[in-house]
Amino acid sequence: MNSSDSITDSDEASRTDPEASSSAFDNETKSTDNKDEVMKRAAAKKLIERYFYQLTDGCGNPQCDNKYCASNGEMSPLTPDEAAAKAIQLFSQEARLCEIHPNKIARKQGNIINNTNGSSNEVTCKTSQTTNESESQSNYSSKDSLKCNSAPVPTFLTEQALYDIIDECEANNSYSPLIRTLGEIFSSIENLSKSFPQEAKSPSQAYSLDDADIKALKKEEVRTLEGEKDKDEDSSADSIKSSLPLVDVPSVRRAFTALFKLKKSIFENALVNALVTLAGNLQMELPTRKERGVNDDIVNVLLIVFEIPGLCSGDLLETALPAICRAAQGLPIEVQANLARQWSEVARSSIRIILMNLQQLITYCILRAMMTLMPDFCLQDENVITSATKLMKILYYANLLAGVLESPELRCHTLSDSTDGLLIKPKNSLPSDLLADELGVHVLDCRTPYIPFSEFYHEPLSEAVEMDRDFANYKSETGIRMNPCKFSFMHYPFILTPATKTMGLYFDNRIRMYSERRISFLQAVTGLPSQPFLKLKVRRDHIIDDALVELEMISMDNPSDLKKQLVVEFEGEQGIDEGGVSKEFFQLVIEEIFNPDYAMFVIQPESQTTWFNPTSFESDAQFKLIGVVLGLAIYNNVILAVNFPMVLYRKLMGRRGSFEDLQDWNPVLYNSLKQLLDYEEPNFEDVFMLTFRISYQDVFGSTISYDLKHDGDKILVTQENKYEFVDMYADFLLNKSVEKQFSAFYRGFQMVVDESPLELLFRPEEIELLICGSKNFDFDELELSTEYDGGYSNETQIIKDFWSVVHALSMEDKRKLLQFTTGSDRVPVGGLSKLKLVVAKNGPDSDRLPTAHTCFNVLLLPEYSSKEKLKDRLVKAINYSKGFGML
C-alpha cells in the first residue's frame, strides 16, 4: 500500500464494519482513563471526517444506495459548510457509513494545533492525483485545499505556542508557518474562541468530552451551520452551557506584543484577511444564534480581536476594523451584555484604547467623505459609522460597570404628591434601553465612570451630523427600533457633545411649539378663540406676583398652553418679544424668586448653592410654579443664572440624593461624616458621642431636632451602625426634609418637559450646563466666531479697537457686555462660539451710545473716531442697559 493510499488500522476497521466501529466508540466513552478519552475523541473526529467526504466525494461505488453518499446520484450537491453540518448530524445519529471503494482514498485535514509542549504540528492533505509523495504534500489542488480547510476540526492558539512559532520562523528565516497559523486561527470563530484560555490545556484535555456532551454540542453546531429557524422539540433539553474557558487577556496582550515586534509587512496582510473572513463568518452565524447561552465563543472572539495593537492605523483600520464592526452590530442583547461585563472585569484597562480605535475609525470615515466630496453624504446612512457607534454603546456600558456604581434602589421614577396622593409620571415614557435592562444598570447609577463621560464625545461627528435629519429619523413613526434603516444618533447620546444634543432638543421643542400654533389656527377657523402663543403680560414692579398668577391660571385651565412659544410683554413698554424680552423676564424672575428674603430657598453658606427651605411657609403651588419657570426656560432655550447643587439635577432625572451628594451640597458636613466613617478606633462612641437624633437650624436661627429612628436620642452611633447613620442623615437632608417642596417643584417642571427627550439625551451634569450655561468665558473664541455687517470686517480699524477694548475689560464688565448684546450674561452650551454675535455699522462717528437687538445678538456700533471715544461710549452703554434700555 503506497503512501497516497495509507489508511490507519482503526480507519480500515471502521470502514469495513461501521457498526463495530460505533460499538467500539461507545465502549471507549465509558472509560475514565485520559488516554482512552483522547483515543475516543480522535476516533470521533475520524468518523466525522469520513461522513464529510462521503457527502462531498462519495464512496466511489456507482451503484451505492446510501442516500447520504455523493456517489448516489439522487443526492443534491452540498457546499463545504452544509456538508460539515450534515456530517456532524449523521455522526450524532450514528448513520450508515459506506465502504470505501478502491478508487477512493482517505484524506486528512491540514491543521495547526497546539500540543502539550506548545509546539505546532502540521499535517498536510494528500491527493490521489499525483504519484510523487513529496509533490502530493506540497502541491495539492485548490479544490482539495478548500475541502481540507472546511473540515470542522477545532484548533486553538496559546501564548507559548505563538512564541514557539515566531522563534521557529526566525530560525528558518521563513514566516510561512506564522502566516498559516494566523490565517487559520483568526479566520475561525471556533479556533479563536478557544485560544488564549486562562488555564491553558492541551488538545487532548480540551476536547475530552463524554459522548453525550459531544453529540449535544455538535447538534447545536448543526443548527447553527444549517441556519434552521425552528428548533425541534428537544432543543431545550439538548442546549448546554458553554464550557469555553475565559480569555486570559494579559496573555493575549503579551502574545500580541511579541507578534508586533516583527515587521508588520510580514504578517499584516494575513491578519487582515483572516479578520475579514472572521467578520463574514460572524455575520452569517449571528442570525442563527437564537438560543441564550450559546454565544460565549463570540464574546471570546471579540475580546481577543479588540486587544490587537494597531487597530487604529493602516489596513487594520481601513479594512479589518470596519468589517468587525459591521459584524458586531448584529450581536444579540445578551451577548452585548456579556461582552460589556467582560470588558469591565477582565479588560477594563483596554476600554480607553478600544474607544480611541472606534473613534479613529469614525473620524477616518468622516474625513474620507469630506476629502472625496461624496454627494449626499449622510452620517446616519454610513454603515461603518453607525456600526461603530453601536459597538461604542457596549463599551459605554462597560465603562459604567467598571466605575463606581450606587444601588439601583436609589432610583425614583415616581414621586408621591403630598397633597393629593397621586403619582407623578411623564405622559409619554421613553422607550426602555434593552441593554441597560439586560445589565440591570442605568447611567444614573454610576457615580464615577472608569473613564470620564466626556471622552466618549466625538467632536468631528458632532460637527458634521445634520441634526434636522437625525431628529426626523428619531421622530419617524417606524423609528429606529422597528426599522433599522432609520438610524438616529439621538438614541446614542453619549457620542454627541452637549451643544449638538441641545440642537436636537431645540428641534423637538420648536416642532411642538409649531404644532400647538397650528392647532390654535385650526381652532380659529372653527370660530373658537385662538391664542397661538403663551403670552404673559407683567408689570416690572410686580413681576413675581403677575407672572405666578398668570402661570397658575394657565396650568389649571389648559396645561397644554405651556407648550406654546413664550411671549412676554412688560406693561407700559414698547419692546416686542422676539426672544430678548423673554430673556430679561427670566433674569428678573430668577433674581427675585431665589432671593433669601422670599424664604422659599436658602443659600448654603459652605458651597454658596441654592436649596429648598425645609421650613418654608409658601404653598405647594408656589414651588410648582417655580418648577414651571425652570421648565419654560429649557423649553424656550433660555439660560438662567441659578446655582443649584448637582443633587437637584440628579433628583430631576429620577435619582434620590445620597451621602456622596453631600460633597457639593455641604462640603464641611461631608468631610465631617467622612472622617466619622474612616475612624476605626475602639473608642468611637467616646470620641463622637452621637445618637440617631440630629439637629439643624431654620432660617430664623431656631434649632430643630429630628429622630432618624424611633427614640433616636437613645440609640448611640457605633462602629456597627455608623454607615446606617450616615445614609439616614443624608437621606433626611436631601430627600425627606424637602420632600413636599421638591415634589411640587418636580411636578411643575414635568408639566413643561414631560414629552421632551430631555432624559434620553442628557445626564445630570449636562442638564446643569443646559440650564446654567458654560462657565468658560473665552472671548477669544467669541472674536473668532463673530460676524460683521454694514461695511465692517475684521480688518476694519474700529473693529480692531473694539476687540482691544473688550479684551481689556474686567470679567464683571465682560459679563455686562454679554448682557447688553444678548440679554443674558451666561455662556451658551458649547461656549461663546455658539453665540453668533453680529457687529453691525450704525452710521458714521457720533456721540450716540452703542445699541443692541438682544433678540438677534446684534450690536449696533457707530464708527467712532478714536479708540478712547469707543471705550467711553461702550462702557456707559453696558452699565446703563437695564429696563427699557434692553430692546
Automatic annotation (TrEMBL):
GO cellular component: cytoplasm; nucleus; proteasome complex
Residues at the catalytic site: C855 (glycyl thioester intermediate)
Assigned keywords, A-Z: Biological rhythms, Cytoplasm, Membrane, Metal-binding, Nucleus, Phosphoprotein, Proteasome, Transferase, Transmembrane, Transmembrane helix, Ubl conjugation pathway, Zinc, Zinc-finger
Top-level enzyme category: transferase
SUPFAM superfamilies for this protein: Hect, E3 ligase catalytic domain
Single GO term (MF): ubiquitin protein ligase activity
Main location: cytoplasm
CDD domains xrefs: HECTc
Compartments reported by the entry: Cytoplasm; Nucleus
Protein source organism: Phyllotreta striolata
GO biological process: animal organ development; nuclear receptor-mediated steroid hormone signaling pathway; positive regulation of macromolecule metabolic process; protein polyubiquitination; regulation of circadian rhythm; regulation of primary metabolic process; regulation of signal transduction; rhythmic process
Compositionally skewed regions (Low complexity) per UniProt: 111-139
Chain ranges passing through the membrane: 625-649
Gene3D superfamilies: Hect, E3 ligase catalytic domain (3.30.2160.10), Hect, E3 ligase catalytic domains (3.90.1750.10), Ubiquitin-protein ligase E3A, N-terminal zinc-binding domain (AZUL) (6.10.130.10)
Top-level lineage group: Eukaryota
PROSITE patterns the UniProt entry points to: HECT
Catalytic activity entry: S-ubiquitinyl-[E2 ubiquitin-conjugating enzyme]-L-cysteine + [acceptor protein]-L-lysine = [E2 ubiquitin-conjugating enzyme]-L-cysteine + N(6)-ubiquitinyl-[acceptor protein]-L-lysine
Region of interest called Disordered, as start-end residue ranges on this chain: 1-37, 111-147
InterPro entries reported in the protein's UniProt record: AZUL, AZUL_sf, E3A/B/C-like, HECT_dom, Hect_E3_ubiquitin_ligase
Residue ranges with Basic and acidic residues bias: 27-37
Name of the protein in its database record: Ubiquitin-protein ligase E3A
Pfam families reported in the protein's UniProt record: AZUL, HECT
EC number(s) reported in the record: 2.3.2.26
Domain HECT intervals: 558-887
Protein's UniProt keywords contain Membrane: yes
